Amino acid sequence: MASNINPTVRRRRLGQELRRLRELKGMTAEEVAERLLVSQSKISRLENGRRSISQRDVRDLCGVYEVDDHRVVDSLMQMAKDSRQQGWWHAFGDIPYSVYIGLETEAASLRVYESLLVPGLLQTSGYAEAVIPGTVPELTQEQLDKRIQVRMRRQDRVNHPDSPLRLWVVLDESALRRVVGSHLIMREQLDHLVEVSNLPHVTVQVLPYDAGAHAGMSGTFSILEFDDAADSSVVYIEGVTSDLYLEKTNDVHKYTIMYEHLRAQALSADQSREFIAAAAKKHADSMA
């Protein structure tokens, strides 16, 4: 889990440092792009850690920013080299949300609001096998198998013996009622939710229908936080064709306030376990 072997986090830190050097120089991303004869979007992607950074990129940028300290340049060059290492998820091929997996692997805590389905970190294999092809029907069997394997591997963060992820989930009631796969799969999934919610580092709260209008009605989101002060919190919003990562302090603050309102409207952890257990029983009764 150490950050020195996490290419996503290393790339993000390097991008932040390059942005700091640009701002110290008093240059805009557009001005830097013109100097290097590249697109402005490339500079932006390098700075936000969404694009792989080569040692040549670092050398060129340090030249534009007139960084004279060779120790600083060497350190940034080494970070660029380390950032091109591959995380465990690369072994599964082209995973569309690989940037998020890299952040999740390094995060110390994760707050999730889900409105329609059980979050991936808490899914059973049966639920995953049913929900993934339902949401992405064009997948081949090979692609489906890889996605299921990745989803199950991600759950190592929840069960890590030394540094488990601190996970807080607010789950809309609809995720408990919708029959994904079968009533048997749903009963097993909800039983699993009850079990995992008893872990000291996992909290699950249900937002029932009768809670009325709430702050999460505009869509689902996750907030990732990190132990290292160099890594700012990130709001992650999953999209169909692209994902959104918000890192500005004001944006993160707004979503944090939204999450606090969701937690306040949801049932308590104990009430939620009872609610989930009752929903599991209804699925069991439907099998009779």
UniProtKB/TrEMBL annotation:
Pfam families: DUF5753, HTH_31
InterPro entries xrefs: Cro/C1-type_HTH, DUF5753, Lambda_DNA-bd_dom_sf
Gene3D superfamilies: lambda repressor-like DNA-binding domains (1.10.260.40)
Gene Ontology MF terms: DNA binding
Superkingdom: Bacteria
All copies of domain HTH cro/C1-type, residue ranges: 18-72
Protein name, per record: Transcriptional regulator
Provenance organism: Streptomyces paromomycinus (Streptomyces rimosus subsp. paromomycinus)
